[in-house]
Amino acid sequence: MNDHPPQIHLHPYHLDTDGHLSRTMIVTGYPRQVRAGWADPLLTYPGDADVSLHLAPIPAPAALRRLRHRRARLESAWRTDTLRGLLEDPHRAAAVTDAADLADRVATGETRMFRLAVYITVHAADPRELDAEVHRLSALAASVLVDLAPAVYRPWAGIRSTLPLGTDALNMGRSVDTDALAALMPLAGADLEAPTGRTAVVYGTNAHSGGVVLWDRFHGGLDNYNAVVLARSGAGKSYLAKLELLRSLYTGVQAVVIDPTDEYAHLTAAVGGTRIPLGLPEGRINPFDLTGGGKQAFTQRALFLTTLITAMVGSTDPQETAALNRAIPTAYAAHGITATDPATWERTPPVLSDLVTALRRDAESSKDAGSLADRLSAFTDGTHRGLLDGPTTAHPTGHLTTVTLRHLPAELRTVGLLLVLDALWRRITDPATRRPRLIVIDEGWTLLQDPVGARYVFDLAKNARRHWVGLTLLTQDVADLLATDLGRAVAANAATQILLRQAPQNLDAVCDSFHLSHGERHIVATAERGIALLAAGRHRTVFRAVASPVEHRLITTDPTEATDTEGSR
Protein backbone atom coordinates (compact mmCIF):
# COMPACT_ATOMS: atom_id res chain seq x y z
CA MET A 1 0.00 0.00 0.00
CA ASN A 2 1.38 3.41 -1.00
CA ASP A 3 1.55 6.02 1.77
CA HIS A 4 2.33 9.00 -0.48
CA PRO A 5 -0.46 11.02 -2.12
CA PRO A 6 -1.02 10.58 -5.86
CA GLN A 7 1.32 12.48 -8.14
CA ILE A 8 -0.50 14.72 -10.60
CA HIS A 9 1.18 15.88 -13.79
CA LEU A 10 -0.47 18.53 -15.93
CA HIS A 11 -0.13 18.35 -19.70
CA PRO A 12 -1.67 20.62 -22.33
CA TYR A 13 -4.33 18.11 -23.37
CA HIS A 14 -4.59 15.70 -20.46
CA LEU A 15 -3.96 15.12 -16.79
CA ASP A 16 -1.76 12.27 -15.51
CA THR A 17 -2.59 10.90 -12.03
CA ASP A 18 -0.06 8.17 -11.18
CA GLY A 19 -0.23 6.87 -14.76
CA HIS A 20 -4.01 7.24 -15.09
CA LEU A 21 -4.76 9.68 -17.94
CA SER A 22 -7.81 11.95 -18.19
CA ARG A 23 -8.94 14.43 -20.83
CA THR A 24 -11.93 16.74 -20.50
CA MET A 25 -14.04 17.57 -23.54
CA ILE A 26 -16.31 20.64 -23.56
CA VAL A 27 -19.62 20.66 -25.42
CA THR A 28 -19.33 23.84 -27.48
CA GLY A 29 -22.07 23.39 -30.08
CA TYR A 30 -25.65 22.13 -29.88
CA PRO A 31 -28.18 21.28 -32.60
CA ARG A 32 -30.71 24.01 -33.42
CA GLN A 33 -33.71 21.73 -32.93
CA VAL A 34 -33.86 18.92 -30.37
CA ARG A 35 -36.34 16.27 -29.26
CA ALA A 36 -36.81 14.44 -25.98
CA GLY A 37 -33.87 12.19 -25.19
CA TRP A 38 -31.78 13.54 -28.08
CA ALA A 39 -28.54 13.51 -26.03
CA ASP A 40 -28.95 10.04 -24.52
CA PRO A 41 -26.22 8.52 -26.74
CA LEU A 42 -23.79 10.94 -25.06
CA LEU A 43 -25.17 10.67 -21.54
CA THR A 44 -25.13 6.84 -21.71
CA TYR A 45 -21.76 6.55 -23.46
CA PRO A 46 -20.50 3.02 -22.60
CA GLY A 47 -16.83 3.98 -22.40
CA ASP A 48 -14.85 4.93 -19.30
CA ALA A 49 -16.04 8.54 -19.05
CA ASP A 50 -17.68 10.93 -16.60
CA VAL A 51 -20.38 13.35 -17.77
CA SER A 52 -21.36 16.43 -15.80
CA LEU A 53 -24.15 18.96 -16.41
CA HIS A 54 -23.94 22.34 -14.68
CA LEU A 55 -27.19 24.33 -14.53
CA ALA A 56 -27.82 27.80 -13.18
CA PRO A 57 -31.06 29.77 -13.59
CA ILE A 58 -30.84 33.20 -15.19
CA PRO A 59 -33.23 35.85 -13.82
CA ALA A 60 -35.79 36.99 -16.40
CA PRO A 61 -34.55 40.65 -16.54
CA ALA A 62 -30.98 39.51 -17.14
CA ALA A 63 -32.14 36.97 -19.72
CA LEU A 64 -34.12 39.62 -21.61
CA ARG A 65 -31.18 42.00 -21.53
CA ARG A 66 -28.87 39.32 -22.98
CA LEU A 67 -31.37 38.43 -25.69
CA ARG A 68 -31.79 42.11 -26.59
CA HIS A 69 -28.04 42.54 -26.91
CA ARG A 70 -27.81 39.38 -29.00
CA ARG A 71 -30.55 40.56 -31.35
CA ALA A 72 -28.82 43.91 -31.67
CA ARG A 73 -25.51 42.28 -32.64
CA LEU A 74 -27.17 39.98 -35.16
CA GLU A 75 -29.24 42.73 -36.78
CA SER A 76 -26.23 45.05 -36.89
CA ALA A 77 -24.25 42.40 -38.72
CA TRP A 78 -27.18 41.88 -41.09
CA ARG A 79 -27.34 45.64 -41.88
CA THR A 80 -23.59 45.74 -42.43
CA ASP A 81 -23.78 42.87 -44.92
CA THR A 82 -26.67 44.59 -46.72
CA LEU A 83 -24.71 47.86 -47.11
CA ARG A 84 -21.81 45.88 -48.54
CA GLY A 85 -24.07 44.13 -51.01
CA LEU A 86 -23.51 40.69 -49.49
CA LEU A 87 -26.11 37.94 -49.56
CA GLU A 88 -28.04 37.28 -46.38
CA ASP A 89 -26.55 34.59 -44.13
CA PRO A 90 -29.35 32.02 -43.57
CA HIS A 91 -27.86 30.94 -40.23
CA ARG A 92 -27.83 34.51 -38.96
CA ALA A 93 -31.39 35.06 -40.14
CA ALA A 94 -32.53 31.93 -38.29
CA ALA A 95 -30.68 33.09 -35.15
CA VAL A 96 -32.45 36.48 -35.27
CA THR A 97 -35.84 34.78 -35.54
CA ASP A 98 -35.03 32.38 -32.70
CA ALA A 99 -33.82 35.18 -30.42
CA ALA A 100 -36.96 37.24 -31.07
CA ASP A 101 -39.26 34.28 -30.41
CA LEU A 102 -37.36 33.32 -27.26
CA ALA A 103 -37.48 36.89 -25.93
CA ASP A 104 -41.27 36.97 -26.38
CA ARG A 105 -41.72 33.70 -24.49
CA VAL A 106 -39.43 34.79 -21.65
CA ALA A 107 -41.25 38.12 -21.35
CA THR A 108 -44.65 36.38 -21.12
CA GLY A 109 -43.41 33.79 -18.63
CA GLU A 110 -43.85 30.82 -20.99
CA THR A 111 -40.24 29.75 -20.49
CA ARG A 112 -37.20 30.50 -18.39
CA MET A 113 -33.54 30.81 -19.25
CA PHE A 114 -30.71 28.76 -17.78
CA ARG A 115 -26.97 28.69 -18.14
CA LEU A 116 -25.90 25.17 -19.18
CA ALA A 117 -22.42 23.67 -19.30
CA VAL A 118 -21.74 20.06 -20.31
CA TYR A 119 -18.32 18.45 -19.79
CA ILE A 120 -17.14 14.90 -20.48
CA THR A 121 -13.93 13.56 -18.94
CA VAL A 122 -12.51 10.51 -20.69
CA HIS A 123 -10.18 8.12 -18.84
CA ALA A 124 -7.56 5.73 -20.22
CA ALA A 125 -4.39 3.90 -19.26
CA ASP A 126 -2.07 5.26 -21.99
CA PRO A 127 -2.01 8.11 -24.54
CA ARG A 128 -2.90 5.92 -27.52
CA GLU A 129 -5.94 4.47 -25.78
CA LEU A 130 -6.96 7.96 -24.64
CA ASP A 131 -6.80 9.33 -28.19
CA ALA A 132 -8.82 6.40 -29.51
CA GLU A 133 -11.50 6.81 -26.82
CA VAL A 134 -11.77 10.56 -27.48
CA HIS A 135 -12.07 9.87 -31.20
CA ARG A 136 -14.96 7.44 -30.59
CA LEU A 137 -16.66 9.94 -28.31
CA SER A 138 -16.27 12.76 -30.85
CA ALA A 139 -17.72 10.58 -33.61
CA LEU A 140 -20.70 9.76 -31.40
CA ALA A 141 -21.19 13.45 -30.57
CA ALA A 142 -21.06 14.38 -34.25
CA SER A 143 -23.83 11.84 -34.95
CA VAL A 144 -26.19 13.90 -32.73
CA LEU A 145 -24.91 17.25 -34.11
CA VAL A 146 -22.90 18.14 -31.01
CA ASP A 147 -19.47 19.82 -31.18
CA LEU A 148 -16.74 18.91 -28.71
CA ALA A 149 -13.52 20.75 -27.90
CA PRO A 150 -10.75 19.75 -25.46
CA ALA A 151 -10.03 21.83 -22.39
CA VAL A 152 -6.56 22.81 -23.65
CA TYR A 153 -4.10 23.86 -20.93
CA ARG A 154 -6.91 23.47 -18.39
CA PRO A 155 -6.89 19.73 -17.52
CA TRP A 156 -7.04 20.37 -13.76
CA ALA A 157 -10.06 22.64 -14.12
CA GLY A 158 -11.62 20.06 -16.43
CA ILE A 159 -11.27 17.13 -14.03
CA ARG A 160 -12.67 19.22 -11.15
CA SER A 161 -15.66 20.22 -13.28
CA THR A 162 -16.69 16.58 -13.76
CA LEU A 163 -16.21 15.48 -10.17
CA PRO A 164 -19.39 15.31 -8.03
CA LEU A 165 -18.55 18.62 -6.38
CA GLY A 166 -20.97 20.94 -8.19
CA THR A 167 -18.03 23.16 -9.23
CA ASP A 168 -17.83 24.58 -12.74
CA ALA A 169 -14.14 25.48 -12.89
CA LEU A 170 -14.17 25.80 -16.69
CA ASN A 171 -17.10 28.23 -16.88
CA MET A 172 -17.88 27.34 -20.51
CA GLY A 173 -21.67 27.43 -20.38
CA ARG A 174 -24.26 28.86 -22.75
CA SER A 175 -27.84 30.05 -22.40
CA VAL A 176 -30.70 27.63 -23.07
CA ASP A 177 -34.43 27.75 -22.44
CA THR A 178 -36.60 25.37 -20.42
CA ASP A 179 -37.67 23.26 -23.42
CA ALA A 180 -34.11 22.63 -24.59
CA LEU A 181 -33.00 21.84 -21.07
CA ALA A 182 -35.87 19.40 -20.50
CA ALA A 183 -35.05 17.61 -23.76
CA LEU A 184 -31.47 17.18 -22.58
CA MET A 185 -32.41 15.52 -19.29
CA PRO A 186 -31.86 11.71 -19.17
CA LEU A 187 -35.52 10.88 -18.56
CA ALA A 188 -35.78 8.20 -21.29
CA GLY A 189 -33.40 5.74 -22.86
CA ALA A 190 -32.24 6.17 -26.41
CA ASP A 191 -33.99 2.87 -27.16
CA LEU A 192 -37.28 4.76 -27.26
CA GLU A 193 -36.15 6.27 -30.53
CA ALA A 194 -35.96 2.81 -32.11
CA PRO A 195 -38.89 1.79 -34.37
CA THR A 196 -41.64 0.11 -32.38
CA GLY A 197 -45.07 -1.31 -33.13
CA ARG A 198 -47.84 -3.17 -31.38
CA THR A 199 -45.49 -6.05 -30.48
CA ALA A 200 -43.06 -3.85 -28.53
CA VAL A 201 -42.27 -5.00 -24.99
CA VAL A 202 -40.54 -3.37 -22.02
CA TYR A 203 -37.22 -5.06 -21.33
CA GLY A 204 -36.40 -3.04 -18.22
CA THR A 205 -34.83 0.26 -17.24
CA ASN A 206 -31.76 1.93 -18.70
CA ALA A 207 -28.90 1.21 -16.31
CA HIS A 208 -27.40 4.68 -16.87
CA SER A 209 -30.35 7.04 -17.23
CA GLY A 210 -33.16 5.13 -15.50
CA GLY A 211 -35.42 5.47 -18.55
CA VAL A 212 -37.61 2.71 -19.93
CA VAL A 213 -36.05 0.38 -22.52
CA LEU A 214 -38.72 -0.54 -25.06
CA TRP A 215 -37.86 -2.90 -27.91
CA ASP A 216 -39.84 -4.46 -30.76
CA ARG A 217 -38.17 -7.44 -32.40
CA PHE A 218 -40.96 -7.77 -34.96
CA HIS A 219 -40.70 -4.27 -36.39
CA GLY A 220 -40.01 -4.23 -40.11
CA GLY A 221 -36.97 -2.00 -39.73
CA LEU A 222 -34.84 -4.87 -38.40
CA ASP A 223 -33.00 -7.33 -40.62
CA ASN A 224 -34.75 -10.24 -38.90
CA TYR A 225 -36.68 -11.09 -35.76
CA ASN A 226 -34.09 -13.42 -34.21
CA ALA A 227 -32.25 -12.91 -30.93
CA VAL A 228 -29.42 -14.56 -29.04
CA VAL A 229 -29.10 -14.32 -25.26
CA LEU A 230 -25.60 -15.18 -24.09
CA ALA A 231 -24.45 -15.32 -20.48
CA ARG A 232 -22.56 -17.33 -17.92
CA SER A 233 -24.52 -19.58 -15.60
CA GLY A 234 -26.50 -17.62 -13.02
CA ALA A 235 -26.33 -14.27 -14.83
CA GLY A 236 -30.11 -14.16 -15.36
CA LYS A 237 -30.59 -15.14 -19.00
CA SER A 238 -33.56 -17.48 -18.40
CA TYR A 239 -35.19 -14.87 -16.16
CA LEU A 240 -34.87 -12.27 -18.91
CA ALA A 241 -36.08 -14.67 -21.61
CA LYS A 242 -39.17 -15.60 -19.61
CA LEU A 243 -39.90 -11.94 -18.90
CA GLU A 244 -39.75 -11.13 -22.63
CA LEU A 245 -41.86 -14.20 -23.40
CA LEU A 246 -44.56 -13.27 -20.89
CA ARG A 247 -44.78 -9.68 -22.11
CA SER A 248 -44.81 -10.80 -25.74
CA LEU A 249 -47.86 -12.93 -24.97
CA TYR A 250 -49.60 -9.75 -23.78
CA THR A 251 -49.13 -8.25 -27.26
CA GLY A 252 -50.64 -11.25 -29.06
CA VAL A 253 -47.42 -13.02 -30.08
CA GLN A 254 -47.73 -16.81 -30.21
CA ALA A 255 -44.82 -18.64 -28.62
CA VAL A 256 -43.24 -22.06 -28.38
CA VAL A 257 -40.55 -22.88 -25.83
CA ILE A 258 -38.12 -25.78 -25.96
CA ASP A 259 -37.34 -26.27 -22.29
CA PRO A 260 -34.57 -28.71 -21.30
CA THR A 261 -35.23 -28.68 -17.53
CA ASP A 262 -38.99 -28.05 -17.25
CA GLU A 263 -38.43 -24.66 -15.58
CA TYR A 264 -41.13 -23.04 -17.74
CA ALA A 265 -43.85 -25.34 -16.36
CA HIS A 266 -45.14 -22.85 -13.76
CA LEU A 267 -45.32 -20.02 -16.30
CA THR A 268 -47.05 -22.24 -18.87
CA ALA A 269 -49.70 -23.37 -16.40
CA ALA A 270 -50.32 -19.82 -15.16
CA VAL A 271 -51.11 -18.47 -18.64
CA GLY A 272 -53.13 -21.49 -19.76
CA GLY A 273 -50.52 -22.83 -22.16
CA THR A 274 -49.88 -26.36 -23.40
CA ARG A 275 -47.06 -28.49 -21.97
CA ILE A 276 -45.67 -31.35 -24.03
CA PRO A 277 -43.45 -33.82 -22.09
CA LEU A 278 -41.37 -35.23 -24.93
CA GLY A 279 -40.31 -38.82 -24.28
CA LEU A 280 -43.50 -39.81 -22.46
CA PRO A 281 -46.51 -41.45 -24.17
CA GLU A 282 -48.54 -38.21 -23.87
CA GLY A 283 -45.74 -36.24 -25.55
CA ARG A 284 -45.13 -38.33 -28.67
CA ILE A 285 -44.64 -36.76 -32.13
CA ASN A 286 -44.77 -39.11 -35.14
CA PRO A 287 -42.27 -37.89 -37.78
CA PHE A 288 -44.22 -39.71 -40.51
CA ASP A 289 -47.25 -37.38 -40.26
CA LEU A 290 -47.99 -35.78 -43.63
CA THR A 291 -49.24 -32.42 -42.38
CA GLY A 292 -48.17 -29.17 -43.96
CA GLY A 293 -45.88 -28.77 -46.93
CA GLY A 294 -48.58 -28.56 -49.58
CA LYS A 295 -47.82 -30.40 -52.80
CA GLN A 296 -44.30 -31.20 -51.60
CA ALA A 297 -45.41 -32.77 -48.32
CA PHE A 298 -44.35 -36.32 -49.23
CA THR A 299 -40.95 -35.27 -50.56
CA GLN A 300 -40.30 -33.08 -47.52
CA ARG A 301 -41.23 -35.94 -45.19
CA ALA A 302 -38.82 -38.28 -46.92
CA LEU A 303 -35.99 -35.72 -46.68
CA PHE A 304 -36.64 -35.00 -43.02
CA LEU A 305 -36.85 -38.70 -42.14
CA THR A 306 -33.43 -39.18 -43.71
CA THR A 307 -32.04 -36.31 -41.60
CA LEU A 308 -33.72 -37.56 -38.44
CA ILE A 309 -32.58 -41.17 -38.78
CA THR A 310 -29.03 -40.02 -39.48
CA ALA A 311 -29.13 -38.15 -36.16
CA MET A 312 -30.64 -41.18 -34.39
CA VAL A 313 -28.01 -43.71 -35.49
CA GLY A 314 -25.08 -41.31 -35.54
CA SER A 315 -24.23 -41.54 -39.25
CA THR A 316 -25.08 -43.51 -42.37
CA ASP A 317 -22.91 -44.54 -45.29
CA PRO A 318 -24.12 -44.17 -48.91
CA GLN A 319 -25.37 -47.77 -49.05
CA GLU A 320 -27.44 -47.36 -45.88
CA THR A 321 -28.82 -44.06 -47.17
CA ALA A 322 -29.87 -45.77 -50.39
CA ALA A 323 -31.58 -48.55 -48.40
CA LEU A 324 -33.37 -45.91 -46.32
CA ASN A 325 -34.58 -44.10 -49.45
CA ARG A 326 -36.12 -47.37 -50.67
CA ALA A 327 -37.69 -48.27 -47.32
CA ILE A 328 -39.46 -44.94 -46.65
CA PRO A 329 -41.84 -45.15 -49.66
CA THR A 330 -42.37 -48.85 -48.89
CA ALA A 331 -43.46 -48.07 -45.32
CA TYR A 332 -45.94 -45.48 -46.59
CA ALA A 333 -47.23 -47.84 -49.29
CA ALA A 334 -48.03 -50.46 -46.65
CA HIS A 335 -50.60 -47.95 -45.31
CA GLY A 336 -51.98 -47.14 -48.76
CA ILE A 337 -50.07 -43.83 -49.12
CA THR A 338 -48.19 -43.07 -52.32
CA ALA A 339 -46.06 -40.13 -53.35
CA THR A 340 -48.01 -39.53 -56.57
CA ASP A 341 -51.54 -39.45 -55.10
CA PRO A 342 -52.12 -36.57 -52.62
CA ALA A 343 -55.59 -37.94 -51.93
CA THR A 344 -53.96 -40.80 -49.99
CA TRP A 345 -51.99 -38.46 -47.73
CA GLU A 346 -54.95 -38.09 -45.36
CA ARG A 347 -54.76 -41.77 -44.37
CA THR A 348 -53.19 -42.94 -41.12
CA PRO A 349 -49.41 -42.65 -41.57
CA PRO A 350 -46.88 -45.37 -40.71
CA VAL A 351 -44.71 -45.33 -37.60
CA LEU A 352 -41.06 -46.12 -37.07
CA SER A 353 -41.65 -49.85 -36.62
CA ASP A 354 -43.15 -49.95 -40.13
CA LEU A 355 -39.94 -48.48 -41.49
CA VAL A 356 -37.87 -51.09 -39.62
CA THR A 357 -40.11 -53.82 -41.09
CA ALA A 358 -39.52 -52.46 -44.60
CA LEU A 359 -35.77 -52.42 -44.00
CA ARG A 360 -35.75 -56.05 -42.82
CA ARG A 361 -37.63 -57.11 -45.93
CA ASP A 362 -35.00 -55.32 -48.00
CA ALA A 363 -32.23 -57.02 -46.01
CA GLU A 364 -32.60 -60.13 -48.15
CA SER A 365 -31.00 -58.23 -51.04
CA SER A 366 -29.01 -55.63 -49.10
CA LYS A 367 -27.07 -56.33 -45.92
CA ASP A 368 -26.87 -52.55 -45.33
CA ALA A 369 -30.64 -52.44 -44.90
CA GLY A 370 -30.41 -55.13 -42.23
CA SER A 371 -27.61 -53.31 -40.45
CA LEU A 372 -29.64 -50.08 -40.39
CA ALA A 373 -32.72 -51.96 -39.13
CA ASP A 374 -30.66 -53.42 -36.26
CA ARG A 375 -29.42 -49.94 -35.30
CA LEU A 376 -32.99 -48.60 -35.28
CA SER A 377 -34.39 -51.47 -33.24
CA ALA A 378 -33.53 -49.66 -29.99
CA PHE A 379 -36.19 -47.09 -30.90
CA THR A 380 -38.86 -49.69 -31.69
CA ASP A 381 -38.22 -52.63 -29.38
CA GLY A 382 -35.68 -51.31 -26.90
CA THR A 383 -35.44 -48.67 -24.19
CA HIS A 384 -36.18 -45.70 -26.49
CA ARG A 385 -39.39 -46.93 -28.07
CA GLY A 386 -41.62 -44.43 -26.24
CA LEU A 387 -40.16 -41.46 -28.10
CA LEU A 388 -41.05 -42.29 -31.71
CA ASP A 389 -42.81 -45.59 -32.16
CA GLY A 390 -46.50 -44.68 -32.15
CA PRO A 391 -49.02 -42.12 -33.40
CA THR A 392 -48.79 -38.44 -32.47
CA THR A 393 -50.30 -37.66 -29.06
CA ALA A 394 -49.10 -34.04 -28.68
CA HIS A 395 -49.84 -31.07 -30.92
CA PRO A 396 -48.07 -27.66 -30.55
CA THR A 397 -51.18 -25.48 -30.61
CA GLY A 398 -52.36 -22.52 -28.56
CA HIS A 399 -50.83 -19.18 -27.64
CA LEU A 400 -48.02 -20.83 -25.64
CA THR A 401 -46.63 -24.32 -26.05
CA THR A 402 -43.79 -25.56 -23.89
CA VAL A 403 -41.95 -28.71 -24.95
CA THR A 404 -40.00 -30.11 -22.04
CA LEU A 405 -37.01 -32.39 -22.63
CA ARG A 406 -36.54 -33.39 -19.00
CA HIS A 407 -37.80 -36.92 -19.62
CA LEU A 408 -35.46 -37.54 -22.56
CA PRO A 409 -32.09 -39.25 -22.05
CA ALA A 410 -29.16 -36.98 -22.86
CA GLU A 411 -28.28 -39.00 -25.96
CA LEU A 412 -31.77 -38.38 -27.39
CA ARG A 413 -31.94 -34.62 -26.84
CA THR A 414 -30.89 -33.79 -30.39
CA VAL A 415 -33.43 -36.24 -31.84
CA GLY A 416 -36.19 -34.77 -29.69
CA LEU A 417 -35.27 -31.21 -30.65
CA LEU A 418 -35.30 -32.10 -34.34
CA LEU A 419 -38.77 -33.61 -33.97
CA VAL A 420 -40.08 -30.49 -32.25
CA LEU A 421 -38.48 -28.02 -34.65
CA ASP A 422 -39.80 -29.96 -37.62
CA ALA A 423 -43.34 -29.97 -36.21
CA LEU A 424 -43.08 -26.25 -35.53
CA TRP A 425 -41.74 -25.50 -38.98
CA ARG A 426 -44.65 -27.29 -40.62
CA ARG A 427 -47.01 -25.22 -38.52
CA ILE A 428 -45.47 -21.80 -39.05
CA THR A 429 -45.14 -22.25 -42.81
CA ASP A 430 -48.90 -22.72 -43.11
CA PRO A 431 -50.19 -19.44 -44.64
CA ALA A 432 -53.58 -19.91 -42.96
CA THR A 433 -52.04 -19.47 -39.49
CA ARG A 434 -49.73 -16.53 -40.24
CA ARG A 435 -49.06 -14.34 -37.17
CA PRO A 436 -46.03 -13.12 -35.18
CA ARG A 437 -44.42 -16.06 -33.36
CA LEU A 438 -41.52 -16.69 -31.04
CA ILE A 439 -39.53 -19.93 -30.86
CA VAL A 440 -37.41 -20.00 -27.71
CA ILE A 441 -34.65 -22.61 -27.46
CA ASP A 442 -33.22 -22.65 -23.96
CA GLU A 443 -29.69 -24.04 -23.58
CA GLY A 444 -29.35 -24.11 -27.36
CA TRP A 445 -25.80 -25.47 -27.16
CA THR A 446 -27.28 -28.98 -26.73
CA LEU A 447 -28.61 -28.79 -30.29
CA LEU A 448 -25.62 -26.97 -31.76
CA GLN A 449 -23.23 -29.66 -30.54
CA ASP A 450 -24.64 -32.03 -33.17
CA PRO A 451 -23.80 -31.09 -36.80
CA VAL A 452 -27.25 -32.16 -38.02
CA GLY A 453 -29.00 -30.18 -35.30
CA ALA A 454 -26.80 -27.14 -35.86
CA ARG A 455 -27.63 -27.18 -39.57
CA TYR A 456 -31.35 -27.37 -38.78
CA VAL A 457 -31.18 -24.41 -36.39
CA PHE A 458 -29.16 -22.42 -38.93
CA ASP A 459 -31.77 -23.02 -41.63
CA LEU A 460 -34.50 -21.99 -39.19
CA ALA A 461 -32.60 -18.80 -38.27
CA LYS A 462 -32.15 -17.88 -41.94
CA ASN A 463 -35.71 -18.57 -43.10
CA ALA A 464 -37.78 -17.61 -40.05
CA ARG A 465 -38.22 -13.96 -41.05
CA ARG A 466 -40.26 -14.68 -44.16
CA HIS A 467 -42.80 -16.49 -41.98
CA TRP A 468 -43.01 -13.73 -39.30
CA VAL A 469 -41.11 -15.85 -36.78
CA GLY A 470 -38.41 -14.82 -34.34
CA LEU A 471 -35.96 -17.41 -33.02
CA THR A 472 -34.54 -16.86 -29.52
CA LEU A 473 -31.45 -18.90 -28.68
CA LEU A 474 -30.21 -18.96 -25.09
CA THR A 475 -26.92 -20.51 -24.10
CA GLN A 476 -24.34 -20.34 -21.32
CA ASP A 477 -21.72 -22.22 -23.33
CA VAL A 478 -20.77 -19.23 -25.42
CA ALA A 479 -17.47 -20.76 -26.46
CA ASP A 480 -19.26 -23.75 -28.01
CA LEU A 481 -21.61 -21.44 -29.92
CA LEU A 482 -18.81 -19.30 -31.36
CA ALA A 483 -16.36 -22.17 -31.94
CA THR A 484 -18.09 -23.47 -35.08
CA ASP A 485 -18.98 -21.83 -38.38
CA LEU A 486 -22.66 -22.73 -38.01
CA GLY A 487 -22.77 -21.43 -34.45
CA ARG A 488 -21.25 -18.11 -35.47
CA ALA A 489 -23.64 -17.94 -38.41
CA VAL A 490 -26.63 -18.44 -36.09
CA ALA A 491 -25.37 -15.60 -33.88
CA ALA A 492 -24.76 -13.40 -36.91
CA ASN A 493 -28.32 -14.03 -38.14
CA ALA A 494 -29.75 -12.53 -34.94
CA ALA A 495 -30.60 -8.85 -35.31
CA THR A 496 -31.07 -8.55 -31.54
CA GLN A 497 -28.13 -9.60 -29.37
CA ILE A 498 -28.43 -9.57 -25.58
CA LEU A 499 -25.24 -10.10 -23.62
CA LEU A 500 -25.26 -10.55 -19.86
CA ARG A 501 -22.21 -11.21 -17.74
CA GLN A 502 -19.71 -13.42 -19.54
CA ALA A 503 -17.21 -15.91 -18.18
CA PRO A 504 -13.60 -14.60 -18.34
CA GLN A 505 -12.54 -17.34 -20.74
CA ASN A 506 -15.25 -16.28 -23.22
CA LEU A 507 -14.65 -12.52 -23.17
CA ASP A 508 -12.27 -12.33 -26.12
CA ALA A 509 -14.51 -14.48 -28.35
CA VAL A 510 -17.62 -12.46 -27.43
CA CYS A 511 -15.95 -9.09 -27.98
CA ASP A 512 -14.52 -10.15 -31.35
CA SER A 513 -17.77 -11.71 -32.58
CA PHE A 514 -20.03 -8.81 -31.57
CA HIS A 515 -17.51 -5.98 -32.13
CA LEU A 516 -17.74 -4.64 -28.58
CA SER A 517 -15.97 -1.46 -27.57
CA HIS A 518 -13.66 -1.27 -24.59
CA GLY A 519 -16.47 0.11 -22.44
CA GLU A 520 -18.90 -2.59 -23.57
CA ARG A 521 -16.30 -5.25 -22.81
CA HIS A 522 -16.06 -3.90 -19.29
CA ILE A 523 -19.84 -4.03 -18.96
CA VAL A 524 -20.23 -7.69 -19.98
CA ALA A 525 -17.25 -8.65 -17.84
CA THR A 526 -18.53 -7.07 -14.61
CA ALA A 527 -22.32 -6.76 -14.99
CA GLU A 528 -24.43 -7.63 -11.98
CA ARG A 529 -27.11 -10.29 -12.26
CA GLY A 530 -29.98 -9.09 -14.43
CA ILE A 531 -28.01 -6.34 -16.19
CA ALA A 532 -27.53 -6.83 -19.93
CA LEU A 533 -26.18 -5.10 -23.00
CA LEU A 534 -28.72 -4.97 -25.83
CA ALA A 535 -27.07 -4.57 -29.24
CA ALA A 536 -29.05 -4.27 -32.44
CA GLY A 537 -27.23 -2.46 -35.19
CA ARG A 538 -26.76 1.16 -34.14
CA HIS A 539 -29.05 0.68 -31.14
CA ARG A 540 -27.03 -0.22 -28.06
CA THR A 541 -28.03 0.20 -24.47
CA VAL A 542 -27.37 -1.30 -21.06
CA PHE A 543 -30.52 -2.17 -19.15
CA ARG A 544 -31.64 -3.86 -15.97
CA ALA A 545 -34.45 -6.43 -16.27
CA VAL A 546 -37.32 -5.32 -14.03
CA ALA A 547 -40.40 -7.45 -13.35
CA SER A 548 -43.54 -6.77 -11.37
CA PRO A 549 -44.15 -8.91 -8.26
CA VAL A 550 -46.68 -11.05 -10.16
CA GLU A 551 -44.30 -11.54 -13.10
CA HIS A 552 -41.43 -12.29 -10.73
CA ARG A 553 -43.34 -15.10 -9.06
CA LEU A 554 -44.01 -16.68 -12.46
CA ILE A 555 -40.51 -16.46 -13.88
CA THR A 556 -38.10 -16.72 -10.95
CA THR A 557 -35.65 -19.61 -10.97
CA ASP A 558 -34.49 -19.08 -7.40
CA PRO A 559 -35.25 -22.43 -5.68
CA THR A 560 -36.13 -20.73 -2.39
CA GLU A 561 -38.63 -18.40 -4.01
CA ALA A 562 -40.00 -21.18 -6.21
CA THR A 563 -40.63 -23.31 -3.12
CA ASP A 564 -42.40 -20.43 -1.38
CA THR A 565 -44.55 -19.89 -4.47
CA GLU A 566 -45.52 -23.53 -4.69
CA GLY A 567 -46.40 -23.63 -1.01
CA SER A 568 -48.65 -20.56 -1.25
CA ARG A 569 -50.78 -21.92 -4.05
TrEMBL record:
Pfam families noted in UniProt: DUF87
Transmembrane segments: none
Coiled coil segments of this chain: none
Domain Helicase HerA central: 229-276
Matching Gene3D superfamilies: 1.10.8.730, P-loop containing nucleotide triphosphate hydrolases
Matching InterPro entries: HerA_central (IPR002789), P-loop_NTPase (IPR027417), T4SS_component (IPR051162)
Superkingdom as given in the UniProt entry: Bacteria
Name of this chain's protein: DUF87 domain-containing protein
